[in-house]
Design brief:
The complex is a heterodimer of chains A (273) and B (228). With 273 residues, chain A is α+β, with helices and mostly antiparallel strands. In chain A, 70% of the residues lie in helices and 9% in strands. The chains are: A alpha+beta (273), B alpha/beta (228). Chains A and B meet through helix 6 of A and helix 2 and strand 6 of B.
């Protein structure tokens, strides 16, 4: 029983860990995307500094606003120059001319309600226009929701498959000991007494499987993250240190539970004498 | 004391195991259950150990109605009984000593007591020398004596045996039977199923004969004669 069960438990735990890490990263990436989907409120040219500050405060106090950042004309110009770098020469002579507006960059708490927020902000006195990448925002929302749903489903399916495989692996070996179990019952052993060593064995296998898969996953994760993030620079991946504790705890629980339940359940049939 | 009160056992597809059977066995008795194949002997034994439940009637052992015992209480009933089977039912990867000790371990007895008692019992059944052997290293007769030792080790007041000599030759059977007789003399009730005419006739004990699930004969100092 031991080797086959150990391998099965390890593989299931490994997959479980992979899905967990995938979900964690998907969550983090979608949060990053959401936070990048800003609303930009551009302010009329002839609005005083004090008024700009007022507009900024009004926006900041809106219920759905997470952060807001005021960028004055001067700052906008400096930033623009920075972006242009050596090409900044094209801006020479334009100083003092009003071609860049002051603006407020806004990120929302709930981007599903971005439309309302945009409508409201548009009505604020002194706001010239509001830029909202509405279609992108809603697509991102839909995409991340689908990914979350998908990964939860995948984990559930994996759980069911894992229990099924474990049960059957252990059942085979328990079947070989079925007669032994029956004899124990005939002699007067309680279910609890008979089940105990099996459950302990299951827990041990679960623990060993956890250790093996955890080591592989933690080493593998670092390698994968470093190679993937050299290709995809857009997002930050969840660093191992940040997820090692929840990953370890859930994998250990999953493994021990799988072993204990698998072996505990699979001898049930033989106890009925 | 054992009491069967109007006991019937009906298996799936209306196969009758026992049909309205009533009898009483007093403490210290030695009773043979005889009858043709399929007469219902093993069914009667299985009722005593709680392996099956009667479809109708009550099976009472030492004042306990076995058929209304909770599943979780059955092990405790079995510890008060010693059961010996035709196929010995020893644990193959435990030694002779461990097989007997196991029956004490499950009752939570202390190691010290187990170490004291098991060798004694093995001596009684004449297997003191084979304590370290595994079941497949000893003969059938010896295996049966191990299972008798296991049945005895918790000092039960009742020993139940379903064809204990069924796999043994005549000589070994006689040895095993004299073991049972000695146990009985110490006051233990024995209920034994057997197909051996010689054993029943030699022992001169009470005989209950079953046929098609009914008792057709119940005699003190009976003989085997099935009347065919
Ligand atoms: N689990 C079962 N399911 C269905 N029928 C059964 C079952 N056990 C026994 N029977 C039937 O009940 C009847 C009595 O069986 P039982 O085992 O009590 O006979 P027996 O007297 O012990 O026979 P034998 O001498 O061959 O061991 C038989 O007809 C048998 O086929
Ligand atoms: Mg039988």
């Amino acid at each position: 029983m031991t080797v086959a069960s150990f391998i099965t438990v390890s593989c299931c735990l490994f997959l479980f860990g992979v899905f967990l890490l995938f979900t964690l990263n998907m969550n983090s990436i979608s949060e990053q995307i959401e936070s990048q989907c800003e609303i930009i409120a551009r302010i009329d040219f002839d609005v005083s500094a004090q008024q700009q500050q007022d507009i900024y405060n009004t926006i900041l106090n809106l219920e759905n606003v997470k952060t807001a950042e005021l960028e004055t004309q001067e700052q906008a110009l400096t930033n623009f120059k920075k972006e242009l770098g050596d090409d900044a020469v094209v801006l020479e002579g334009l100083e003092g001319k009003r071609f860049l507006r002051s603006s407020v960059k806004i990120s929302l708490k709930d981007i599903r309600k971005s439309e309302e927020a945009v409508k409201y902000i548009q009505k604020i006195n002194g706001v010239a226009e509001v830029e909202n990448r509405q279609d992108i925002v809603s697509k991102v929302v839909k995409f991340t929701a689908a990914v979350k749903k998908g990964s939860v489903m995948a984990m559930l399916i994996l759980l069911i498959i894992a229990i099924f495989i474990i049960q059957n692996t252990i059942k085979l070996s328990v079947h070989a000991r079925g007669k032994e179990i029956q004899i124990m019952k005939f002699v007067g052993a309680t279910d609890h007494f008979i089940r105990m060593p099996f459950v302990i064995e299951g827990v041990m296998i679960g623990t060993l499987g956890f250790i093996a898969s955890f080591v592989i996953i933690t080493f593998g994760y670092n390698a994968v993250i470093s190679s993937v993030s050299s290709i995809i620079r857009l997002f930050d991946f969840v660093p191992l240190q940040a997820c090692i504790t929840p990953l370890g705890i859930s994998m250990a629980l999953f493994g021990v539970l799988m072993g204990a339940l698998g072996s505990g359940l699979s001898i049930k049939r033989h106890l009925k004498v | 004391m054992i009491k069967f009160k109007n006991v019937s056992v009906v298996y799936d597809k209306d196969i009758i195991g026992l049909d309205n059977v009533s009898f009483k066995i007093d403490d210290g008795e030695f009773v043979f259950l005889v009858g043709k194949t399929g007469a219902g002997k093993s069914s009667a034994i299985k009722l005593l150990t709680g392996e099956i439940k009667p479809t109708e009637g009550d099976v009472i052992v030492d004042g306990i109605i076995v058929n209304s015992l909770k599943r979780s209480k059955i092990p405790y009933l079995r510890r008060a009984q010693g059961v010996v089977f035709q196929d010995f039912r020893l644990l193959p990867n435990k030694t002779v000593y461990e097989n007997v000790a196991f029956a004490m371990e499950i009752t939570g007895k202390k190691k010290k007591e187990i170490k004291r008692k098991v060798p004694k019992i093995l001596d009684i059944v004449g297997l003191g020398e084979r304590a370290g052997n595994y079941p497949n290293e000893i003969s059938g007769g010896e295996q049966q004596r191990v299972s008798i030792a296991r049945a005895l080790v918790n000092s039960p007041s009742l020993i139940i045996a379903d064809e204990p000599t069924g796999n043994l030759d005549v000589e070994t059977s006689a040895e095993v039977m004299s073991l049972f007789e000695e146990i009985n003399k110490m006051g233990t009730t024995i209920v034994m199923v057997t197909h051996s005419e010689k054993i029943v006739n030699d022992m001169q004990k009470r005989v209950i004969q079953l046929e098609n699930g009914c008792i057709v004969r119940d005699e003190e100092k009976g003989v085997y004669n099935l009347g065919i």
